[in-house]
Design a protein that fits this description.
Layout lengths: L18 E4 L7 H6 L4 E6 L7 H12 L3 E5 L8 H14 L3 E6 L1 H16 L8 E2 L9 E5 L11 E4 L8 E4 L7 E4 L9 H19 L20 H23 L4 H21 L3 H13 L3 H16 L4 H11 L6 H18 L16 H10 L1 H4 L8 H13 L8 H11 L1
Parallel strand pairs: 1-9, 2-3, 2-4, 4-6, 5-8, 6-9
Antiparallel strand pairs: 7-8
Helix pairs in contact: 3-4, 5-6, 5-7, 5-9, 6-7, 6-10, 8-9, 8-12, 9-11, 9-14, 10-11, 11-15, 12-14
The structure holds nicotinamide-adenine-dinucleotide and fe (ii) ion.
């Protein structure tokens, strides 16, 4: 039974920015969105943008509306906590009353963390985890230039702390930007490798939001940041899956294909809206230790893991995987065959955009697998959001299959039989 099929047993929850603008040219609205929130803006800008015409347009627009702007374009990859706290220190001197994030997921997450640090001080390790931010942060305007993270609408920022083996997340509804402006034209320059890894991550966000666990919230108590799959998030996630299924390959193959770029940009926004409340699950939990071991981009790890995770949930989540097959345009006669076809299609998409197929080709050694399982299980908010019981055995099966590249090991025999019949 899907969420949408039975409204008497389903629920809906979304937490979003006050305003979300999408469209070619929507960047012209950034200065007004900023001016509604403050008079002194700190603009955290991806280094690639600082020399572009888009950036000078933004500064001129702010000036025309009487908003004073200070710019910080020192965005260090992976966001080490010391660098983030240094950025908060620099920001204090400017005393901004609004923060703008303009760039990829790293620039947007840095903007969120600076807005947090300015409001509630440092060290930031007090806020690691869920719902630990004590109140509103400085108002944020988020403008993505990649199609992937959805950070422009989500309640989470990710950073690296040398005292922790894994990257850490700070998750709180207070981190949701007040305004998101998503202009696909800003993504045109992203190189194929960034388009592939961030686009793969957007597909994982949509599919994991759609296949997250369904548990009625305890409405009277403080809700977790991520409440699992629900009516409102599922509609958005399914539309994101449909669009990414038809445009991700094209966007990677030809970065100047504006139709594909626009579809990816919109889909990544929808996926962010969905997973920002529903949450993600096992591909993300497993990427944390894989990323720490291999220093590979987030989306490369989540995208590579997704087919293996879906194979493992197929026996218990056939219906929802069959709906994903419908969105991807590969539905077959039965739910089992459709679910299987969805996973095959996703595997092909990931391979066509050049993602590694298994953990071994990502640089993980066989000797590391037990540690990957152990560490994945520590990312509790993510493993608890899956429909699969979060046991070491279940994760071991997935991680071992992902190491050898044999997803079929995780496929139930009935589905394999069905598939060989259809292909014969
Ligand atoms: N907060 C969230 O909800 C969330 C979700 C998923 C991932 N993340 C985080 O986001 C980060 C990854 O973000 P990302 O994939 O957007 O990459 P990124 O922000 O790290 O950028 C990757 C590279 O692409 C460049 N770039 C960005 N936009 C460009 C453009 N339009 N043209 C040319 N170059 C461009 C950047 O300068 C950088 O060199 C990771 O740190 C991950 O942990 C956050
Ligand atoms: Fe992600």
């Amino acid at each position: 039974m899907t969420d949408i099929a039975d409204l008497t047993r389903s629920f809906g929850l979304l937490r979003l920015p006050d305003s979300i603008a999408f469209g070619d040219g929507s960047r012209a609205g950034i200065p007004a969105a900023v001016a509604r929130l403050g008079r002194r803006a700190l603009v955290i800008c991806d280094p690639f943008l600082a020399s572009t015409g888009y950036f000078s347009e933004l500064l001129e627009g702010l000036d025309a509306l009487g908003v004073a702007a200070t710019v910080d374009s020192h965005v260090v990859p992976e966001l080490p906590v010391a660098e983030v706290e240094a950025a908060i220190g620099r920001a204090r001197a400017a005393a901004p009353d609004v923060v703008v994030g303009f760039g990829g997921g790293s620039a947007l997450d840095l903007a969120k963390l600076v807005a947090l640090g300015l409001a509630h001080g440092t060290p930031l390790n007090r806020f690691y985890g869920e719902n630990l931010v004590p109140g509103p942060v400085l108002p944020l305007v988020a403008v993505p230039t990649t199609s992937g993270t959805g950070s422009e609408v989500t309640p989470v920022a990710v950073l690296a702390d040398p005292e922790r083996e894994l990257k850490v997340g700070i998750s709180s509804p207070y981190l949701i930007p007040r305004a998101a402006v998503v202009d696909p034209r800003l993504t045109l320059g992203a190189p194929p490798s960034v388009t592939a890894s961030s686009g793969a991550d957007a597909l994982v966000h949509a599919i994991e939001a759609y296949t997250a666990q369904r548990r009625q919230p305890e409405w009277a108590s403080q809700l977790p940041v991520f409440v699992g799959s629900n009516l409102l998030s599922s509609s958005l996630a399914l539309e994101a899956i449909r669009l990414i299924g038809r445009s991700l390959r094209r966007a990677v193959r030809d970065g100047s294909d504006f139709q594909a770029r626009a579809e990816m940009s919109y889909a990544s926004l929808l996926a962010g809206m969905a997973f920002g409340t529903a949450g993600t699950h096992l591909s993300h939990a497993i990427q944390y230790p894989v990323g720490a071991l291999t220093h590979t981009p987030h989306g490369l790890g989540t995208g590579m893991m997704l087919p293996y995770v879906l194979r493992a949930i197929l026996p218990t989540d056939t219906e929802r995987l069959a709906e994903i097959a419908g969105a991807l345009g590969v539905a077959r006669a039965s739910a089992e065959e459709s679910a299987d076809a969805a996973i095959s299609e996703i595997t092909e998409i990931m391979s066509d955009i050049g993602l590694p197929r298994d953990l071994a080709s990502m640089g993980v050694d066989e000797a590391d697998l037990d540690r990957v399982v152990e560490l994945s299980l520590t990312v509790r908010r993510l493993v608890a959001n899956s429909t699969l019981e979060p046991t070491a055995e279940n994760l071991q099966r997935i991680v071992h299959a992902a190491y050898t590249g044999m997803h079929r090991e995780l496929t139930p025999s009935a589905a394999i039989a069905n598939e060989s019949e259809t292909r014969a």
